[in-house]
C-alpha cells in the first residue's frame, strides 16, 4: 500500500511583503520627488540665467537693480516674473508698454528645467548632484552667449568653476571619495594646459575663453573618470564638424567664419555625462 501523498501547502493570500519591497518603494518615491523638485528649481534658475545672459556681457550687476522691461525699463512685478507662466499669460508682451518679450526667455527657463530633470534622473540621490546642476547652469548660459556674441565671459566661467569645485569637495567629504576629486582636479589642470597650448599655436582657431572653460570641463568630467573627458572632447568635435558642414553646405556660414566652439564643448560634455556610462565600459575593453 503506497503512502498517502502529502498535499502542498497553499500560498497564503495575505503574504506580508518582504523588507526589501518598502525600501524600493521609498527610494522610488524619493527619486520622483527629487526629479520634480529639481525641475521646479530649474525653472527658477532659468529665470535667473536670463538675467545673467543679458547683463554679464554688458558688465552689469546681476543682483541690482531688479528685472525690468528692456524697452520701457519698468520694473517687472512679482506676478509677471513667474517662469514660463507669466510669459504665456502676457502673450509675450510687456504689461506696461506692450513691447514684445523675446521667446528666448521662456525657452531658457524650459531648457534649464529640462536639464535639471535629466541631471536628477542621471545622478539621483547622490552628493555630486548639486555640482552637476551648477555645471549645466553655467554651460547653458555660456553656450547662449557664445552663440550670440562669440565670447565666453570669464565671470561666468570662474563662478561656475567655483560652484562646481565647492560642491564636489562637499561630495568628496560626504562620500568620502577623494580619489575622484583628485582625478577631477588633475584633469582640470591637464585639460587647461592642453587648451592653452592649442591657443598658443592657433589663437584664431581656439579662443582663450575656451581655455578657461577647459578647467570646468576637466574638473566635472574628470570626477566621473578620465574616459568621460575623452568622450566629451571627441563628441564636441564631431558635433562641431557636422554642424559646420551643414551650415557651410546651406550657405549659412563661410569657411573662414569663426564658430562658437564653446557651444560644442558644452554639447560634448552633456553627451559624455548622459551617455558616457553606456560607452565607457565598451571603450575600456578595446
Q: What does this entry look like structurally?
A:
Helices cover 67% and strands 0% of the residues. It is mainly α and 286 residues long. The chain folds into two domains: 27-125, no CATH class; 127-286, no CATH class. Helix 1 (20-55) packs antiparallel against helix 3.
From the structure above, extract its key features:
2 domains, 286 residues
Q: What structural class do you assign from the helix and strand content?
A: mainly alpha
Give the proportion of residues in helices: 55-70%
Rg (C-alpha, Å)? 24 Å
Quote the beta fraction. under 5%
Question: Number of folding domains?
Answer: 2
- Uncertain stretches: 1-20
Tally of DSSP helical segments: 9
Q: Which sheet architecture does the biggest sheet show? A: none
The overall average pLDDT, rounded, is: 89
Beta-strand segment tally = 0
Task: State the gist of this model.
The protein has 286 residues and is an all-alpha fold. 67% of the residues lie in helices and 0% in strands.
Which SSEs are present, and which pair or pack?
Blueprint: H1 20-55, H2 85-89, H3 104-123, H4 129-149, H5 154-174, H6 178-201, H7 208-224, H8 226-249, H9 261-285
Amino acid at each position: 500500500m503506497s503512502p498517502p501523498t502529502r498535499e502542498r501547502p497553499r500560498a497564503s493570500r495575505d503574504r506580508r511583503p518582504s523588507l526589501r519591497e518598502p525600501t524600493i518603494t521609498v527610494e522610488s518615491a524619493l527619486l520622483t520627488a527629487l526629479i520634480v523638485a529639481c525641475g521646479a528649481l530649474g525653472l527658477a534658475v532659468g529665470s535667473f540665467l536670463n538675467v545673467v545672459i543679458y547683463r554679464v556681457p554688458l558688465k552689469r550687476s546681476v543682483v541690482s537693480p531688479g528685472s525690468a522691461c528692456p524697452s520701457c525699463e519698468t520694473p517687472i512685478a512679482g506676478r509677471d516674473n513667474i517662469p514660463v507662466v507669466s510669459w504665456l499669460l502676457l502673450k509675450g508682451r510687456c504689461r506696461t508698454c506692450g513691447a514684445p518679450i523675446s521667446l528666448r526667455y521662456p525657452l531658457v527657463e524650459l531648457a534649464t528645467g529640462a536639464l535639471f530633470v535629466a541631471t536628477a534622473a542621471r545622478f539621483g540621490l547622490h552628493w555630486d548632484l548639486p555640482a552637476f546642476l551648477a555645471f549645466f547652469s553655467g554651460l547653458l548660459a555660456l553656450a547662449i552667449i557664445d552663440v550670440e556674441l562669440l565670447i565666453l565671459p570669464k565671470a561666468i566661467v570662474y563662478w561656475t568653476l567655483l560652484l562646481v569645485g565647492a560642491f564636489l569637495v562637499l561630495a568628496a567629504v560626504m562620500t568620502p571619495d577623494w580619489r575622484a576629486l583628485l582625478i577631477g582636479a588633475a584633469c582640470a589642470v591637464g585639460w587647461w594646459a592642453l587648451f592653452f597650448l592649442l591657443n598658443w599655436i592657433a589663437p584664431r582657431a581656439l579662443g582663450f575663453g575656451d581655455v578657461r572653460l577647459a578647467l570646468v570641463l576637466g574638473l566635472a568630467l574628470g570626477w566621473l573618470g578620465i574616459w568621460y573627458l575623452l568622450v566629451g572632447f571627441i563628441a564636441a568635435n564631431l558635433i562641431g564638424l557636422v554642424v559646420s558642414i551643414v551650415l557651410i553646405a546651406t550657405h549659412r556660414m563661410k569657411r573662414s567664419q569663426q564658430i562658437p566652439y564653446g557651444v560644442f564643448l558644452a554639447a560634448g560634455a552633456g553627451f559624455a555625462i548622459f551617455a558616457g556610462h553606456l560607452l565607457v565600459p565598451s571603450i575600456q575593453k578595446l
